Amino acid sequence: MKKSDYFYELPEELIAQDPLPDRSSSRLMLLDKTSGEISHRHFYELPGFLKEGDELVLNDTRVMPARLYGVKRDTGAVIEVLLLKHLDDGAWETLVRPGKKAKEGAVIDFGEGLLTGTVEGILEEGNRKIRFSFEGIFEEILDKLGEMPLPPYIHHRLNDKERYQTVYAREQGSAAAPTAGLHFTEELLEQISKSGVGINFVTLHVGLGTFRPVKEDDILDHKMHTERCHIDRLTALRLNKAKAEGRRIVCVGTTSVRTLESMADEAGILHDGYMDTDIFIYPGYRFRICDALITNFHLPESTLIMLVSALAGRENVLEAYREAVKERYRFFSFGDAMFIS
């Protein structure tokens, strides 16, 4: 199975650089995963395409303002630090630029000493383990000093940090947003709930590995990043009941899919709790929980377009992407959405 099987041509000007003023005004492509039929609507029309009894599953992770700029104490060199994963009390796995200036033992000051980091070791792929020292509450300091870690294909500055958060974000820990959820407003969620659709939350803290390109020609040689996910007991029970009754599980975003599929056993029964997942979903995968998917348009040759192709079929997905380019849809994190059912 070749990486090139998931390539499509995308004009650079179709990569959305800014969020729309109204979250729910984005376009919504409808894709029938069986027939491949395509139609064009708007996201605020979504309630009309959901059925009474459906269970909607959203990822409630909250993005940390995880990009910090500091000064190396001994030389004054400017260092960029990106928080990737919380390791233990006060220590984080980080991506540091320039890495050659962040050798073991280096001390970096942020915010004129409001936060101090000490490099304790070099990890896999050159990432650094940094232990932070501070007075007060780390999250409050981070909110004051940090910037949102926008994807590398977004070049505009984000003026409002909340536009890179879903309206239901509450569990802080992500290095990137679960962007399919950015289209929802509180009013739209209320409308969906009143129509008899269940609203459920799971948590998967998105790592920057989600933007890591597939470098191997054979996708089976690709090593997935690991991400922390969680489902509570009541949510697992509710979704198991829906599956047993033949009702649809509609996932919002690939992160919700990965959480549910990781935490389901071979019999298709969801289990609650926490786990680290590196699940890689590509065509040939048999879905245990997910029946339908709301998702954005993904990068060519990415693991995300492979996951979508596993659900809807590679040819259907590539044809839908060609249609989206033709119709001038907006792509990637701040772009338009697709509903696969």
Structure description:
The chain has 341 residues and is of the alpha/beta class. The protein folds into two domains: 3-63 and 160-340, QueA-like (3-Layer(aba) Sandwich), CATH 3.40.1780; 67-145, QueA-like (Thrombin, subunit H, Beta Barrel). Helices cover 18% and strands 28% of the residues. The chain has six helices and 17 strands. It has a nine-stranded mixed β-sheet. It has a six-stranded antiparallel beta barrel with strand order 5-6-7-10-9-8. Strands 4-11 form a two-stranded parallel sheet. The longest helix is centred in the C-terminal third of the chain and has 13 residues, at 314-326. The model has no long low-confidence stretch (mean pLDDT 95).
Spatial order of the strands in the main sheet?
2-1-17-16-14-3-12-13-15
Principal-axes geometry comes out as globular
Distance between the termini: 25 Å
CATH topology of the largest domain: QueA-like
- Percent of sequence in beta strands: 25-35%
Kindly state the number of beta strands.
17
Q: What's the pLDDT, averaged over the residues?
A: 95
CATH architectural grouping of the largest domain: 3-Layer(aba) Sandwich
